[in-house]
UniProtKB/TrEMBL annotation:
This is Rrf2 family protein. It comes from the Bacteria. It comes from Longimicrobium terrae. One of its GO terms (molecular function) is DNA-binding transcription factor activity. One of its GO terms (cellular component) is cytosol.
Length: 151
């Protein structure tokens, strides 16, 4: 299984935004936080804007901001806005196997993955951006560096 990179990127940048709520962050600033191109940020954050998680303003002094306080944004909501799973598990686009035994194995594994996704979704619904920011503080001697989450 592989972690979803878009979700990791979005969460990383959203945490930076939560620490800098006094002003918007440009796509270029956000891209610099994670070592990518600003286009990647704009594409990733378009779904977050549509879901009401972030807002954006064009032009001088513009940029991206959280639309709500970090304590009101759940990880499940972010995952849904990105339209992707947290963990990539195989491809369901493959044609069904011909072997009856393998068909049974695939059905059983697919059922287990669906159940795991339901459990994960419930857990993510209880976690917020504020929870992640607090976790950063716990792992940096009790508090995060003032005004900054280090990458």
């Amino acid at each position: 299984m592989k972690r979803n990179e878009r979700l990791s990127v979005a969460l990383h940048v959203l945490l930076h935004m939560s620490e800098r709520q006094d002003r918007p962050m440009t796509s270029e600033e956000m891209a610099a936080c994670i070592g990518t191109n600003a286009v990647v940020i704009r594409r990733t954050f378009a779904g977050l804007r549509e879901a009401g998680i972030v807002t954006s303003v064009k032009g001088h002094g513009g940029g991206w901001r959280l639309a709500r306080p970090p304590a009101e944004v759940s990880l499940a909501e972010i995952q849904r806005a990105l339209g992707e799973r947290v963990v990539a598990v195989g491809s369901s686009d493959e044609p069904p196997p011909r072997c009856l035994l393998l068909q049974s194995v695939v059905r059983s594994l697919d059922d287990a993955v669906r159940e795991a996704e339901r459990v994960l979704e419930r857990r993510l619904a209880t976690l917020t951006l504020a929870d992640l920011a607090a976790d950063v503080g716990v792992h940096h001697g009790g508090q995060a560096p003032p005004g900054e989450i280090r990458t």
